[in-house]
Amino acid sequence: MTTGSPEGPSPQWKDIHQSVLSSLDALNSATTWISTAATAGIEPIFERVLQQICEPRGVTPEAYIDVITRDAGMRRDVQKRLSRMMENPKLQALRRDAQRREAEHQLHVLHYILTAQPPPEWVWSAIDEEQREQLQDAAESGEERNDVLLPRVRAALNKLGTNPSAYGRCEDCQGAIPLERLQLVPWAECCAACQRKREGVPDDAPEPEVRVTHF
Ligand SMILES: [Zn+2]
């Protein structure tokens, strides 16, 4: 099948496109895909839809992507549906839970390095042998002791334990702290802008980084 003429995609591609859109609409009103999307993202779900539609018609998902990449309207149709799926409230809730568990794990590891107090079993058992040894060395050396960081790590763990929904929300402006920031600074109390205000740093200055080697 040709990918279309200068006037636009061929009728066959338009037909495939309609099938893709209907499948995405059907998924959007179902819930079966949500747990997969929460752990693996939306891409594998979209890929499976494309395979199921493209293969029986003798075309490849890549060729379809090529076609819609060159057609702004078709691309928009797909993007609109994928964004709607991403915004699914159940998916958002599951993703937030997964992010909190990940942050809690990181914070326990960090707490261990900072104090040499063993982390909970669920954290320890998720770490491979080689990394455990590295962490053990770091914890026992005491080189990572950090009196500024430790209270912040403890406060974040405490928040996760007692009021998990407050974790990841800025203490000053109540806005959501961006995920990228939480991944780098899981003990963050504030969004970057409020943190700068707390520290009296001008808006355009980078936030002072707390360096942790084994993290
Ligand atoms: Zn803030």
Automatic annotation (TrEMBL):
Residues 167-199 form the Zinc finger DksA/TraR C4-type domain. The keyword Zinc applies. SUPFAM superfamilies: Glucocorticoid receptor-like (DNA-binding domain). The keyword Zinc applies. Keywords: Metal-binding, Zinc, Zinc-finger. Gene3D superfamilies: DksA, coiled-coil domain. InterPro entries: Znf_DskA_TraR, Znf_DskA_TraR_CS. A zinc finger (dksA C4-type) spans 170-194. Coiled coil: none annotated. GO terms for molecular function: zinc ion binding. Pfam families: zf-dskA_traR. This is Zinc finger DksA/TraR C4-type domain-containing protein. It comes from Melittangium boletus DSM 14713.
